[in-house]
Amino acid sequence: MAGEELVAHLRRLGDEVAEFGLRARVCAERNGWPYLRVVNPEAETMAENVSCATGAYVWSWGDRIGPVGNPRRVALVIARVLAVREDAPG
Predict the structure, then answer these.
(1) Nearest to residue 50, comparing CAs of 74, 70, 76?
(2) Cα end-to-end span (Å), the chain
(3) Which residues, other chains included, contact 77 with Cβ-Cβ below 8 Å and sequence gap of 6+?
(4) Which residues of 37-50 are buried (b: 16+ CB within 10 A; e: fewer)?
(5) Cβ-count burial of 10 within 10 angstroms (0-12 exposed, 13-18 middle, 19+ buried)?
(6) Residue 2 and residue 80: Cα distance in Å, rounded?
(7) Half-sphere exposure at residue 41, Cβ-oriented, CA atoms within 13 angstroms
(8) What is the pTM of this model?
(9) CB of 40 within 8 A of CB of 22?
């Protein structure tokens, strides 16, 4: 995928994660590769950098989240992972 196409996919995902109350912005690594920084504003340590590769959104550690053709489903997965759990021990 070309850089502009990657950024377009990341922006679409950013719009979707915002619907779940998360903050997102498109950033670029030093080499220029774009990624989406997603942060839970209720707990800013709950954050993730998501990129695109081979037609899919990808976690920072390289695992595939889901296809770029379904950003809503991917946003739901990200929102679940970055959620603050009320029932967590603490």
Answers:
(1) 74
(2) 43
(3) 65, 66
(4) ebbbeeeeeeebeb
(5) buried
(6) 29
(7) 9
(8) 0.90
(9) yes
pLDDT, tens digit only, all 90 positions of the chain:
678 899 999 999 999 999 999 999 999 988 888 999 999 999 999 999 999 998 999 999 999 999 999 999 999 999 999 998 776 555
E-state strands within 1-90: 23-28, 34-39, 47-53, 56-58, 64-67
For 46, list phi and psi in degrees, rounded to 5.
Answer: -85, 95
The angle at the Cα of 23, spanning 50 to 85, to the nearest 5 degrees, equals 85
